[in-house]
Amino acid sequence: MAQDSQVASTPVVARGERDGLPVRSLAPRQTLSVGITLFSMFFGAGNLILPPLLGVQAGSEGLPAILGFFVTGVGLPVLGIVAVALSGTLRDLATRVHPTFARVFVALVYLSIGPCLAIPRTASTAFEMLAPLLPEGASPELARLAFSVAFFAVAYVLALRPGRLTRLLGRVTGPALIALIVVVVASALASLPGMAPAPAPVAPYDGAPAVAGFLTGYQTMDLLASLTFGIVIATNVRALGVSAPRDVTRAVCGAGVIAGVLMMAVYGGLCVVGYELSADLATVTNGAVVITASASAHFGIAGTAIVAVIFLLACLNVCIGLISCCGSYFAEELPSVSYRACALAFAVFSCAVSNLGLDAIISFSATLLGALYPPAIVLVAMGLLRRRCDAVPAVWPWTVGVTVAVSVAEALRDALAPALALPLDALPLAGMGLGWVLPALLAAALSSALSVLLRRRHARA
User: Fold this and answer.
1) Which of 6, 133, 151, 414 fits a 20 to 30 Å CA distance from 32?
2) CA 315 to CA 433: how far, in whole Å?
3) Is the distance from CB of 223 to CB of 377 less than 8 angstroms?
4) pLDDT per residue over 321-365, tens digit each?
5) Sign of the alpha-carbon torsion through 371, 374, 376, 379
6) Cβ-count burial of 44 within 10 angstroms (0-12 exposed, 13-18 middle, 19+ buried)?
7) How far, in Å, CA of 357 to CA of 419, rounded?
8) Neighbouring C-beta atoms of residue 129, cutoff 10 Å
9) Are 233 and 78 in contact (CB under 8 A)?
10) Helices (H), 192-338
11) Stretch 34-63: mean pLDDT, rounded?
């Protein structure tokens, strides 16, 4: 233990100084720990449920479906980490559109991945896995209340020191979660050689499986989370002794790459778990059932226990990370309120929301994610090209503004009047849920061209 503490607190010194601060970089072991910490913050219940269900429903089209899922479930979150790290903070990135937009958008992102959706979902999903184990005659409502109170009490206590998450998530709960998932995935891989060919895909993967996988990746919420996790990861990097902003950015980006590699490996493995059972569970609609069936088939009652521990660890890891992120952000936004008070408020509110049940939370999520994800994707893309976009400032408000208008209109229609026809339905890719893509590209092109023309005219005058 003493040796671990020394490794964690002694980064490798590179050379000289930069901006008056010593140039330092993390040791490989530290970089791996920070990467596993980030992976643990990303990898929650939704990440566990979606890939095996994809494997079952996509069947013989599992490869293109999981590749599409990788784009939104892995690629975009990693790029989000990089884009925010390069820009400083999510607020710095969003302010390029407009200061008011930045305040509203950032607050909505934190609230969606926090107390309004993602944090309550962690407790609700964990309880759903434990509900079948309740004694006969027990009240599900009282059991859910007791579980959620205990769950959030533990998460709050562990989130009180956000700068120490690497010690917990990066070295204990994160590796334990990965090890248990490897056990389940390895048993499924061992069964592949003897299985019959997978059946044909079912909806939504029977049309364009890659696009369906891409849209399924929205439900992980990891792109939105990636825009906020940088604060806590940067805090952990600084706690390890790295202080120069450029070195912190490099360390955060490195952690993002490690987390992305781990997520791809785990997602691919969990998809194989579903692929193995695609013929037997063709009508299933819950990925948790798929994982439980696979583990139980290979390990009996011990498999059920393994799955329960996997879900509990995954949900607790994410809950701790999200409380830390949201508490850190709002403590900065509200200087008169301490971090502990913010974290406690989010834990209590999330505990109350979690008792509405998993189905109610998931039904609300579709509308919110449909409105937030497209502008988040555009912001990340423009953040990676920020120097070129900054050269034409008008491209920021026009491109993001048009994307917001289209995505919000479609999300409200889908939530309030699904049968209502909109002119936006005639847009290319609208039938695939990507109707915002062409308007965003046109807004970027037209605003850039107009800005260049006005600049040239001004120069001639």
Assistant:
1) 151
2) 29
3) yes
4) 889 888 888 898 888 999 999 999 999 999 988 887 656 666 666
5) negative
6) buried
7) 27
8) 21
9) no
10) 209-216, 222-239, 245-276, 287-299, 301-333
11) 87
**Residue found under tokens 């792109």:** 223
pTM recorded for the entire structure: 0.79
The conformational region for residue 137 under phi > 0 = left, psi -120 to 50 = alpha, else beta, is left
Q: Write the burial class of residue 197 (CB in 10 Å: 0-12 exposed, 13-18 middle, 19+ buried).
A: exposed
| Spatial separation of the C-alpha atoms in residues 238 and 232, rounded to whole Å | 10
Question: Which bin fits 43, alpha (ψ -120 to 50), beta or left (φ > 0)?
Answer: beta
**pLDDT band at 20, cuts 50/70/90?**
low
Residue type, 43: F
Q: Per residue in 214-243, is it b (16+ CB within 10 Å) or e — as a string?
A: bbbbbbbbbbbbbbbbbbbbbbbbebbbbb
Q: Could you give the CA distance from residue 185 to residue 196 in angstroms, rounded to a whole number?
A: 18
Which has the closest alpha carbon to 123: 316, 412, 387? 316
Amino acid (one-letter) located at 37:
T
**Residues ≥6 apart with Cβ < 8 Å to 53:** 274, 284, 285, 286, 287, 290
Tokens for 43, please give them.
Answer: 């990898």
Compute CA 229 distance to the chain's CA centroid, rounded to the nearest angstrom: 9
